[in-house]
């Protein structure tokens, strides 16, 4: 809409601006469709997704009808002044964005995405194990940052990495020892220390991997992050990739069942996850 209004000031580039506007509306439409599907699935408590989707469509039709009637009343007023048009535009846009923000913040989802899972796991490793005081579903959702950007995170986790990322720059003997650590697992986790302040954790899954497998893999990855942030862990251990992989795997195998129990106690849904996982799979 901003580009559509701005096109009035650039008559020579009107067609170009309108085309860019249409392209951006298409992108927003795709993103909105994905979000709507996730929310519809969340709201279908009785596995009645079709019913919820139909009601959502009916409500949207009604809202659009009301908006049409309102626009017929307000258009004759705002079109008399370009300044008034911009004022109404910014006021309505601000109201729209604010309402959407609070609407999304009010949603409480029992399923995990990466952000919510890391919030729960970080608290679990730092405080939950000692006090047996775990975060509730509501707590995790309220703590989630809707504008979180992980580009500058010193430790990045890449789920669904290729097998090449797992064995890159490793000798045959090292690769064999590495695979022995995960001989009974449906995932492989590789710690790659890029620099002293930057680490990438690669996780690849087997074709048999389930939602529980993804939870276990990300739990181990979060524990690696916890180790790297631990002030008392010797620097040489932080720099040693094999040490981090072995220590985190041993810890995960001992504590993951208890961790899953804590999720069940706090009423989280562990049957499905919405992690940002690439589609690479490997057999070993």
From TrEMBL:
Please report the stretch or stretches of sequence annotated as the Protein root UVB sensitive/RUS domain: 1-127
Which top-rank group of organisms is this from? Eukaryota
User: Is Transmembrane helix one of the keywords UniProt gives this record?
Assistant: yes
GO cellular-component terms in the record? Answer: membrane
Pfam families per the UniProt record, alphabetical? UVB_sens_C, UVB_sens_prot
**Quick check: keyword Transmembrane in the entry?**
yes
Query: Residues in domain Root UVB sensitive protein C-terminal?
Result: 135-284
- InterPro entries per the UniProt record, alphabetical: RUS_fam, UVB_sens_C, UVB_sens_RUS_dom
Q: What is its main location?
A: membrane
Subcellular compartments: Membrane
Q: Which of UniProt's keywords are assigned here?
A: Membrane, Transmembrane, Transmembrane helix
The UniProt transmembrane annotation reads 14-39, 60-78, 84-104
Q: Which family does the record claim for this protein?
A: Belongs to the RUS1 family.
Name this protein carries in UniProt: RUS family member 1
Native organism: Caerostris extrusa (Bark spider)
Query: Which gene name does the record give?
Result: Rusf1
């Amino acid at each position: 809409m901003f580009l559509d209004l701005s096109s009035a000031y650039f008559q020579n580039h009107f067609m170009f601006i309108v085309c860019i506007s249409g392209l951006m509306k298409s992108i927003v439409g795709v993103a909105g469709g994905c979000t709507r599907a996730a929310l519809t699935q969340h709201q279908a408590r009785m596995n009645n997704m079709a019913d919820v989707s139909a009601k959502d469509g009916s409500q949207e039709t009604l809202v659009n009808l009301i908006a049409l009637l309102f626009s017929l009343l307000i258009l004759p007023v705002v079109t008399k002044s370009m300044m008034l048009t911009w004022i109404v535009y910014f006021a309505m846009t601000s109201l729209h964005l604010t309402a959407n923000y609070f609407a999304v913040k009010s949603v409480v989802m029992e399923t995990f995405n990466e952000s919510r899972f890391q919030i729960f796991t970080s608290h679990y490793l730092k405080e939950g194990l000692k006090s047996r005081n775990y975060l509730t579903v509501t707590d995790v959702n309220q703590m989630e940052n809707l504008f979180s950007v992980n580009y500058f995170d010193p430790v990045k986790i890449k789920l669904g990495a290729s097998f090449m990322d797992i064995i890159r720059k490793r000798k045959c003997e090292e690769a064999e020892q590495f695979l022995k650590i995960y001989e009974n697992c449906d995932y492989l986790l590789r710690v790659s220390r890029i620099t002293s302040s930057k680490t990438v954790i690669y996780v690849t899954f087997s074709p048999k991997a389930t939602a529980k497998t993804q939870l276990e893999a990300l739990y181990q990855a979060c524990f690696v992050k916890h180790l790297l942030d631990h002030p008392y862990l010797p620097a040489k251990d932080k720099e040693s990739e094999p040490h981090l992989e072995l220590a985190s795997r041993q810890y995960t195998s001992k504590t993951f069942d208890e961790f899953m129990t804590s999720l069940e106690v706090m009423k989280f849904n562990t049957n499905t996850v919405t992690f940002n996982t690439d589609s690479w799979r490997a057999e070993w």
